[in-house]
Amino acid sequence: MVYCDKDGVVPVAEKDLPVILPHNVPITLAGGSPLAGVPEFLNTTCPKCGGPARRETDTMDTFVDSSWYFYRYADAHNDKAPFDSEKIAYWFGKNGIDQYIGGVEHAILHLIYSRFWTKFMRDMGLVKNDEPVARLFTQGMVIKDGAKMSKNLGNVVSPDEMVARYGADAARLYSLFAAPPDRDLDWQDSGIEGIQRFLGRVYRFYLRTPPVETRLAASPAAEMTKQARTGQSPPPQSESLSPQARAIQRKLHQTIKRVSHDFQGRWHFNTCIAAIMELVNEIYGAEQAIAAGRVPASLLADVQRNIALLLAPMAPYLAHELWEMTGETSNLLKAPWPKYDAALAAEDEIEIPVQVNGKLRGLVVVPAGATDDQIKQAALANDKVKAAIAGKQVVKVIVVPKKLVSIVVR
Ligand SMILES: [Zn+2]
Prior knowledge:
- The protein is an alpha/beta fold.
- The chain has 17 helices and 13 strands.
- The termini are far apart.
């Protein structure tokens, strides 16, 4: 814009755009725009009358850029316009960007401005979406020694230093583990050491339990292991497993279930990592059974394969190493996310006989951890029991925990 004493505010003709800012602007911090101190920029001629005029010296500040820069990403090489509206319609759709992740400090300025900017451009017909983003996620801050980590306070932990000392995987895993992503993270140097020890524990499990082919070159279990490798869990042979092996199998499927749920739906990476830690603890707790051969090699191979897959998004370097250690030659990043088997994840079930007036009338199957009330409800819902008590009045239901349900009718 140009200010003319005769014509007022006059826009610069489009053919003369852009107005290039001068170099060597004296930054005096004296207040006002430093551009006013550059006469060859300031003084110009009026596009309308050709008389003397002054240029606008208030340039748009960075908030303007941050209000709309993300639209430019969709058409970054356009030298004719800010963007092609058709490309924005393609990438932004009706609802805008799928997911925005930012700190809470953006909640008032940048986010409000970018919403305003979007609505303004919508009204001008430049974009079709009403909002810049569909979903906002506000991540927590990193706190150290009771204060927000900041250069001003000098309490900054350099990621480079952490990576050099503990490795990139440990540094990343720790920052994901220390708090849910929407909460502030209280940085503890001892915490990252704990994570490093955990990764060492995982690595040693693979070292001690080498690829199953090496151990089982010509054993009948090799075929089953092949199945495990192709992404399928070993056949549900829980009855033939030792109690320790069944516990590992159950924990494996429970872990896949938990990590899948917390990772996808909730972004609670901290509980994902905690679940993998529990699985690794289960393995170490069964060391004697493993050494004695009471845990099938195919199951251990399945566990190893899945731990590598579950760790891959959070500790990719180690995960790739582990993947190769299992004998895999395929690309870990292209491997499908593991699936769990709900039946194998379930707690074991027990069979409880149901008597009606002292006579065996049915059997109910309940989870081993079922409460007396759950057992009672299961007994009363059993078809054979229902038939036996039809038309009669139930006087009493006695549950002998894990053993028997006795129903007295009249
Ligand atoms: Zn003029």
